Structure formats: C-alpha cells, structure tokens
Amino acid sequence: MFVRLVVAAWLLLCALPLPAAAQALTGAGSTFAQPVIARWGQLFATLQGDGGASVSADANLDYEPVGSTGGMMRVLQRAVDFGVTDVPMTPEELARHELAQFPVVSSGVAVVTNLPGVPSGALRLSGQVLADIYLGKVARWNDAAIVALNGGLALPDAPIAVLRRADGSGTTYHFAAYLAGASAEWRDRVGVDTLLNWPVGTGARGNRELAEAVRATRHAIGYVEASLAARLDIPVALIGNRAGAFVAPSLQALQAGLAGAQWEAARHFHQAVAAPEGPEAYPIVATAFALVPRRPGRGQRLSIEFFRFALAERSGDAMMLGYVPLPEPVVRDVIAYWRATLRR
Known about the structure:
The chain is an alpha/beta fold. The protein is 39% helix and 17% strand.
C-alpha cells in the first residue's frame, strides 16, 4: 500500500526529467547501501571480471543516495537506469511498472547514542523502551524504564535528544517495524512506513547525516545502518531480540538474523519484514534490492553488467565494509532470474 500511495503522489505532482544522453550508468535510492554501491562503482570502470571480460570503459557510476522512496520514484519515471530500495516492491507493483527486482546486500539497523561515559555495547534497550522514547513517553536518560534494563550503568539525568530520518527511508521502515512488533501503541499511533508522522524528534536526511547529527549532539539517540555506525565509531546499544537476549549488530549477529530469509525468485525476491529468531540473532535486519526496467536498452544492459560484477566477483568488498553479502546460492538464483525475467 505504501508504494502505491507514494507512487501516485509523485506521478501527479512532478515529472522528473529523463536522463541526458550521457555515458554514465545512473542509479538512485538507498543510503543504507550507498557505501558498498559506491565502492563497486569505483571498481566497475577500472577492473576486469575474473573471467577476463572487459568492463565497459564508459560505465562510470553516478548514484544519488536519496533514500529508498526517492530511488523508487526515479526508476519509475525512468530518470535513472536502476533504483535501490530497502523495502521490496510487491510482484503486482513490479508487473504494473515493468520492473525486475533482486537483492543486492544485507545489513542491520543500529541504534546509536552519544552518552559521555557510556561506551559502545554497554547500554541495553528493549523494543518497548525504544518505542516509548520515540513516542515521547520516555524523555530522560535516567527514566525508570531505562534504568531497569541497565542496573549499575551510570545514566545521566538529562533529556534524550531524539533524532530520526526526515526523508523516505527503508532504514526507517525496518526500525518502525521492530518498534511496532514490540509496542501496540506504536503500531496503532504511528505504524510502519518509509515516511512517518513522528511524535517527537529532529529530522536528518540520509544515514550519514543522521549519524553525524548523533555524533554532534550530546545525549542523542538515533538509528543508522550498522556498518556505518562501525566505520564512524559511534557507540551502539544492545537491542532486545525475540529470545530475550540483548545483542550488538556484529557481523555474526546480523548473519544469524538473516538466516531465515526467504529468497523466492518466482516472487521477484519479495519477502515480509524479517522477524529473526534465536538468542544470537540481531533483531533489526534489512536487505537492499535493485529495481531495473524489464525492457531492453543500454541502461538495463549496463545495470545487469554492474550487478553481475558486484555480486559474483566483489562480495568481499561488502564484507570488508561490514555488510552481509548474498550467499552464493542466492547469487546464482539472481543470475538465473535475470535470464528468465529481463527482455533482451
């Protein structure tokens, strides 16, 4: 439903320009996946594949990190060659707009804080307490609900500076889904979407801007893509999972959280929001999906060449940056999906 509403509004209110006749491969969307996409883009125009096939010399990547909603809009208007979203479109929506969809890379949503004297991994937060913070019901760091989860941890008697995304964001969608699973009030009052009517908080655009805002704001809390928090060395909280354990967004915990993912090529890899099980699983995980027009053309050809290079040959770059790359069987399924779905 959220995709249909957003699409209808954009189609009525704006007509984005078609891409100029330039040589760049153009993409737009997820800030969650932007660092690894940028890395792949740097390598795409300069390296050769393991099989010896030359990568196109005119294939420099121009990627706009405008958020998942913006990426969907740009590819729907054919203003870019591909979009990237952290919230997959349904098979029905994809058929209506003649798009193919496939997974690219996975990670998690880390809750980050700026609490002097509280190191990374020391603070525990449950889904209920996080929901109450973002509902404005828990407004100070020494609130009894937070203290009860953190016996012995010195928490400041200070107001919580709540920071959140201001743009259409897949990161927001998955964070909100976690809160909705823990809090009926959040589910009823706010819900789950890429754009929310936030009860409290100051907005920032993109994962990077929100991370920098948390780092610059004393007593702040926010949520960002997990590997970005690690690269920027921003303290993360331990988050309560369905088994009652409190878990950091380590690579191993993210992999455990993604273990139950269902990759169905017949449904264009669409899947419900993950609800990780098990005591070792990080509870807020997400996957970025590429959207590519089914009709043939230079943009489609280069997009598939780019993602074949990235997924089949450069999964190590994703791991190096702190993401969870697609399992090899899923990569093989994606390549077979291209053959079956894309017009040539």
